[in-house]
Amino acid sequence: MFDVISLCFRNCDTMIHLLKGNIGTGILAMPDAFKNAGLTVGTLATVVIGIICVHTMHMLVNCSHELCRRTQVPSLSFAEVAETSFKVGPPRLRKFSSFARIIINVFLCVTQLGFCCVYFVFVATNLQVVVKDHMGPDWSVQTYMAILLLPMIILNWIRNLKYLAPFSMIANACMAVGLGIIFYYIFENLPPINSKRVVVGFSSWKQLPLYFGTAIYAFEGIGMILPLENSMKTPQDFRGWTGVLNTGMVIVGCLYTAVGFFGYVKYGSFIKGSITLNLPQADILAGSVRLVMALSIFLSYALQFYVPIDIAWPAIKSRIPTERMQILWEYVFRTVLVIVTFLLAVLIPDLSLFISFVGAVSSSTLALIFPPIINMLVNYGTGYGRLHWTLWKDLAVMLFGIVGFLAGTSVSLQQIIYGPEA
Questions:
Q1: For the residues of 329-350, what is the DSSP string, one character each?
Q2: Is the pLDDT of residue 14 over 80?
Q3: Residue 25 phi, psi dihedral angles, 5° rounding
Q4: 282: helix, coil or strand?
Q5: Looking at residues 111-124, what average pLDDT do you find?
Q6: pLDDT > 90? residue 294
Q7: Is the pLDDT of residue 422 over 70?
Q8: How far is Cα of residue 295 from the mean position of the Cα atoms in its chain?
Q9: What Cα–Cα distance (Å) separates residue 281 from each residue in 178, 185, 350, 408?
Q10: How would you class 231 by CB atoms within 10 Å of its CB: exposed for 0-12, middle for 13-18, buried for 19 or more?
Q11: Which residues contact 10 (CB under 8 A, 6 or more apart)?
């Protein structure tokens, strides 16, 4: 009996990490995504994109298990799975195995640093609204980013992941409290669905790519799937119809759909890049929600930032001769990366467009394009099933990702450069 209870607690721990890795600024941007798609299309598309993303997560986990069996190693990272898949794939492609590992690591770094840029914009924008509403000064978003820069740098000087655990717990608590209060505001005097306030069916082809970028940004948690499964004492509980992955992602999908649907119904065409910005401005509780969510995202920045450091720093560290100089240059490297995310955030202070751009560029690549490529390579020697159905399925998912990548990136860039009316 004790073993069963202990197992449940361990699985719940993994579930919490899975939920935390998927629930962030993306869920707060879902009403804006629904505005770009329309209520009906947004709801259906969110379900479809969620199913596809969970499928590619399973695809990556299954490929990792198969490659571990073939190579007789206990576990593989995302980049190692990509590298090994090329090694067992068609002979002409095997020379690109090292390049595949590098590409995956590059996109993981770009994705995480993109999240950090969005976090900069999110925290600064919410602080701007709170200070303007309750204290008076009407400073620009860029001014708040500059104020945040030094605290961000100091927070990211923490080199050991275990010392970030308390910050993660505080961030989780803030996010849970904040989401609960946001739901209260959404359902308070919720208006009926009115075609004059919301687009009930389909918004427009012009806006749809922005929906795709935001939705795939929200669902993109594929980078954490293998580390979570590899850390479990009972990894077999991760997969399966009622496993940790499916259960966690069903919860995530329901939350995204609920916030997106009802948030759009509540605020209609006036919805902003984060639903926190639509809460009553003079309300003290609403102001506290903005502060709580800003604190949660601020503390989460360091956890997102840890991934690119963990990938990029070892290659630089090996070129520095002494341990003392390695420590010094690591602080310099961390500081430079934080400043880079700050400068990018200053250049693109529009939260909605930044989220859509990051989602279209990097999240679609990691979640929709690379997993089917890996799956095709892994199954190269064993076959693709009757009528090659797995091959056609993988090609369809990859094509969906490529179309979303091209359309989402081009529309996001166009509106970032020329404005929302472009």
A1: HHHHHHHHHHHHHHHHHHH---
A2: no
A3: -65, -25
A4: coil
A5: 92
A6: yes
A7: no
A8: 18
A9: 16, 12, 19, 32
A10: middle
A11: 232, 233, 234
